[in-house]
Amino acid sequence: MSQPTSIGRRVVITGCGVVSSIGIGVREFTSALRAGRSNVRPISVFDTTGFAHDNGCEVADFEPARWIRTLDPADLGRASRFSTAAARLAVEDSGLPLETLRAARTLVSVGSTDGEAHELDGLVAQELSAGLAGLDPKLVRRTSAGRLATSIARELELTDVETGTIATACSAGNYAIGNSLDAIRCGDAEFALCGGADALCRKTFTSFYRLRSIAPDCCRPFDRNRMGILTGEGAGILLLESLDSALARGARIYAEVLGYGMSCDAHHPVAPHQAGIARCMELALADAGVKPAEIDLISAHGTGTKANDMTESAAIRDLFGPKPPRTVSMKSMLGHSMGAASALAAIGCSIALTEQFIPPTINHRDTDPDCPVDCVPNESVDADLDIVQNNGWAFGGNNAVVLLGRYERQPREEAGR
Known about the structure:
Mean pLDDT: 95
Oligomer: single chain
Number of helices: 14
Number of strands: 15
Shape: globular
């Protein structure tokens, strides 16, 4: 086994907060992943009049006041409500007393594609209707993308805290996890609440629709007859801490964050770049000190578009050879939740490591010969998982990969000697 390039404290995931279209909270989310469930429905959070098809993956039955108790949910945008509720869920799931979190140096890092574009849609409608004088000041205050992170700190009443919203689009959740890993490794933070959040908005739906990338019915990654993405929404927030901290307080450990890689190939505004993707995976493996043969499962970006799935499959085969690890796409169930996508997938990977099963790629009929991967079609399977790779790609070539491992008391580099 190669040696990891980074040194410092071992970092583990001890809490997971989920707000998604297939469930809120870890228990519902786990059940949905095992069952291969999807809640695709016509979009209702904005007017879809004029579009030939309008399916999406909305968060249903979300009552923000159940989890947002310090702030007034009405003062928050839709995406900030998701991120703040997910953070509360992550802390509660971790068993970490709030008093301990408030007394510690903490990082809050949240990735996003659209920030509060759902609220911006509303402002545009108001301006078109009544001009600038018609803008609602309360709605204006809800539009700042920075509030996806700062609202978490305010809600949990954190004071020794650094907050940041990372705007690297659809890989932003992985960027936030990597950022947090570095902070805890190096001792710059004791705890981190990290992940991603986004809300459905007309702007992004229309953009993908005009790119002819919206599927008319459902998302079927790696399938010969795939027709594109479904836009989704939600938030995935993970609580990270050092292994020493987790052991000292007897915390349940979902997974160890072994390493990450980031790259920006800037090849094309929207088209993925095979070499750039392969390079990002290589960087993640090197950072974690892991060989390709040691990866048991790849959680693919897997959007269901022709270009993404072909390019990602080819890059995986470039690195892993003709028989790569099983490669699944949770977007087949969740839709594409933009900045939340890789964060929700990271939680899915953590659950898979803990529960020892592989979530399926649903809606699958016939694997595309240009995407020759075992995508675990339609039904989850039990599996012996040790290391899982979580991929995230974004427009502009903003790539990020996170490697997660089943927790072992002995460091991996020592076990390999």
